[in-house]
Amino acid sequence: MGKCKNITRLLSDALDRPLSAGEWIAVGLHLPTCSGCRNYRKHISLLRAASREVSGLDRTPETPSDD
Ligand SMILES: [Zn+2]
Q1: What's the structural domain count of the chain?
Q2: Which of 8, 11, 12, 63 is 20 to 30 A from 29 via CA?
Q3: For ion ligand 1, residues whose CB falls within 5 Å
């Protein structure tokens, strides 16, 4: 598909800034078709949870969803 680079970048950006509607649409259209990007999303959300855990800012338990 050749979009994966864009999508993974958007997923990563989404941790730092709000995505535009168009960006979310691109992500939402792509993820169901691409297990690679779904894995990436899972991976970075785990990383984010881990870094939050380390910083101790937010101890809210977050159960990773298994789709
Ligand atoms: Zn992809």
Answers
A1: 1
A2: 63
A3: 4, 34, 36-37
